[in-house]
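Final report, closing paragraph on structural work. Over the funding period we assembled a curated collection of sequence-structure pairs, and we close with a single example.
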Amino acid sequence: MAPICLAPFLIAGALLTLHPNASHTTDRDAAYVEIQSCRDGLGAHGLASTADFYAGGIQYGVSFAVSDAVTVTLQPFVGGSVTTRTERQLPLGAQFETGVNAIVSYGGWSIGAKWLHASNAGLKSPNIGVDWLGVFVGRQF
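Its predicted structure, as stored:
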C-alpha cells in the first residue's frame, strides 16, 4: 500500500447547498477552508465550514498534464464528518462524507470545483443527507 503523500495543499472556498428533490429543504451554504496532505496521490484532508460542518478523510488525486504549465486533477474522497447543528437532513451529529474535486493548476496555484455529499448511511431515519457544490482557490506548498 502506498504511503500518504506530503506536499500540503491549502484550499479556501464556498459551498452552495444543492436541492436534488423535495426532501432537501435545508440551506447550509457556507465558506470553508480545507487542508490536504497533498493534491496528487493518496492523501488525507480536513475541512471546516461556517455551516457548523467539519469533515476529514482520505482522497486520491490523479493528474493529467494539459500543457507544460497546466494540470487537471480529479480527486475522489471519502471520510467522516460531524455537525454541531443537527436537523432533519442530518439527524446525527456524525455522518459519512463522499465526493470529488476537479482541480486546474498553474504553478503552485489552483482553482477548482467540489461536489460533497454527507449522510448517515442509513444509521438513522431519515437518511436524506446534504449535497453541496463548491468552488475554491488553492495553493500547494
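The radius of gyration is 15 Å. Strands lie at 9-18, 30-36, 41-49, 53-65, 70-83, 94-106, 109-119, 130-140. We thank the funder for supporting this effort.
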